[in-house]
């Protein structure tokens, strides 16, 4: 009698270059694909609204692709440790395979599950499928983690090159009788009252086939000009692969090797490296979304929150064109150009003097590519409280940034056209840039002085 293998899909919603799936195929027993919607395990951060929308469609695509090859995807909701144990028992599974996760709460769940299953005689194995370089493999000469990106990435590039991606399986041997599964629609991942996802539907097609098509399109059309135009939000030259990597619809190994084969793109690959750096930072500092990585910033005196200022920022009504364009692009599409992310984040933190955690929470809820490493990591970078942080005195001036990176106004014209219309009536500026910049510098100087006194 067969003892099926369970492949536990997480943030790796693909068939190609999936080491856990390959291990199950090599074991030679029927395969049960499993996805667990875990919003109950301690420390697990529930997905934001835009992320839930993407997850729904990516799971639908994965289930369809598994079915086409003879496999099955079981959906279950609840604390992952219990759910996986129950399916092992229900299916009489002899093995469970997954690709590793690197958040603190996730690692605790995985470690407990691995120990419990092995004690029951179940084969368990985990694999590297989501990062090119695992966190414990990249260290300084003193054996400590890196805190600055450039030497970190240099050390990564000195390691053996990332492995070649694994081929997509043509056939998957499913079980004779599929275990009970939740109906995806019952998870209520899609917004209905109101349905605010129209812009997401117009912008994105989740799923592995679209991810692979986007990678090929970028490498063919945009890689050559990436270094020159990547900072221009109106140029349309970015890869748009961030949500694909966030949900694992394409692996970083595939991106790496296909980029190299297409002619290199060292600057583009360093952006992949920045993603790695964020995950390595989260691995050693699991509370990245809630605590300052640099503890001296705990002394920063955030003024009392002004809800009207926060709402103006969220709604793209600040009176500064590129800030408002970025926030409207985010609300409409679930995405924002990276340069504009830095500008809007700097404006919230340093011109409005609003705690970076409020901005991180908003991006977490509205970005389709928000993950638990990159989102807080980048917010802390702008705030100056994180790894490889920008100097505290760097305050992005949104007007100068717009002139430098959107000189022809194409980005603002698309998302906040009233700023360029002759009879346009844009919002009045809610703060004075010069005054608020000085207030931010004064507050940061207090942090420096407090650190020196200790």
TrEMBL record:
Keywords on record: Chromophore, FAD, Flavoprotein, Lyase
One Pfam family linked to the record: DNA_photolyase
Enzyme class, UniProt record, top EC level: lyase
A GO term, aspect molecular function: deoxyribodipyrimidine photo-lyase activity
Gene3D superfamilies in the record: 1.25.40.80, DNA Cyclobutane Dipyrimidine Photolyase, subunit A, domain 3, HUPs
Domain of life (superkingdom): Bacteria
Matching SUPFAM superfamilies: Cryptochrome/photolyase FAD-binding domain, Cryptochrome/photolyase, N-terminal domain
Cofactor(s), names only, from the UniProt record: FAD
Keyword Lyase among record annotations: yes
Residue ranges of every copy of the Photolyase/cryptochrome alpha/beta domain listed in the record: 3-132
Record-linked InterPro entries: Crypto/Photolyase_FAD-like_sf, Crypto/Photolyase_N_sf, Cryptochr/Photolyase_FAD-bd, Cryptochrome/DNA_photolyase_1, DNA_photolyase_1_CS_C, DNA_photolyase_N, Rossmann-like_a/b/a_fold
Listed EC numbers: 4.1.99.3
Family: Belongs to the DNA photolyase family.
Matching PANTHER family: CRYPTOCHROME, CRYPTOCHROME CIRCADIAN CLOCK 5 ISOFORM X1
Protein name from the UniProt record: Deoxyribodipyrimidine photo-lyase
Lineage, opening ranks: Bacteria, Bacillati, Actinomycetota, Actinomycetes, Micrococcales
């Amino acid at each position: 009698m067969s003892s099926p293998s369970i492949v536990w899909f997480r943030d790796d919603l693909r068939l190609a270059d999936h080491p856990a799936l390959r291990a199950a195929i090599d074991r030679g027993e029927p395969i049960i694909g499993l996805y667990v919607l875990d919003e109950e395990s301690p420390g697990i951060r529930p997905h934001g609204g835009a992320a839930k929308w993407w997850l729904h469609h990516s799971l639908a695509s994965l289930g369809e692709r598994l079915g086409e090859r003879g496999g099955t995807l079981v959906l279950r909701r609840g604390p992952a440790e219990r759910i996986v144990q129950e399916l092992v028992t229900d299916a009489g599974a002899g093995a469970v395979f997954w690709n590793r996760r690197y958040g603190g709460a996730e690692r605790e769940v995985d470690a407990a599950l691995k120990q419990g299953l092995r004690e029951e005689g179940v084969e368990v194995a985990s694999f590297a499928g989501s990062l090119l370089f695992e966190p414990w493999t990249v260290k300084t000469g003193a054996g400590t983690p890196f805190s600055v990106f450039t030497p970190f990435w240099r050390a990564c590039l000195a390691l053996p090159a990332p492995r070649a991606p694994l081929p997509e399986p043509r056939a998957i041997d499913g079980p004779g009788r599929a275990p009970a599964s939740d109906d995806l629609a019952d998870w209520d991942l899609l917004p209905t009252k109101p349905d605010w996802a129209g812009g997401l539907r117009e912008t994105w097609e989740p799923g592995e086939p679209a991810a692979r098509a986007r990678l090929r399109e970028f490498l063919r059309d945009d890689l050559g000009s990436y270094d020159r135009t990547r900072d221009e939000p109106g140029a349309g030259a970015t890869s748009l692969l961030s949500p694909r990597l966030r949900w694992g619809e394409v692996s970083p190994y595939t991106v790496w090797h296909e980029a190299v084969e297409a002619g290199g793109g060292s600057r583009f690959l360093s952006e992949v490296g920045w993603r790695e750096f964020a995950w390595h930072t989260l691995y050693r500092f699991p509370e990245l979304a809630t605590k300052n990585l640099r503890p001296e910033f705990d002394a920063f005196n955030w003024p009392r929150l002004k809800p009207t200022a926060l709402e103006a920022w969220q709604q793209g009504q600040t009176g500064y064109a590129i800030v408002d364009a970025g926030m409207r692009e985010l609300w409409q599409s679930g995405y924002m150009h990276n340069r504009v992310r830095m500008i809007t984040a700097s404006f919230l933190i340093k011109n409005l003097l609003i705690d970076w955690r409020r901005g991180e929470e908003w991006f977490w809820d509205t970005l389709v590519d928000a993950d638990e490493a990159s989102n807080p990591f980048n917010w802390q970078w702008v705030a100056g409280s994180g790894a490889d942080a920008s100097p505290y005195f760097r305050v992005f001036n949104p007007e100068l940034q717009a002139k430098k990176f959107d000189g022809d106004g194409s980005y603002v014209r698309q998302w906040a056209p009233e700023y360029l219309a002759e009879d346009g009536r844009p919002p009045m500026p809610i703060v004075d840039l010069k005054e608020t910049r000085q207030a931010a510098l004064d507050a940061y100087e207090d942090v420096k002085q407090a650190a020196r006194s200790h």
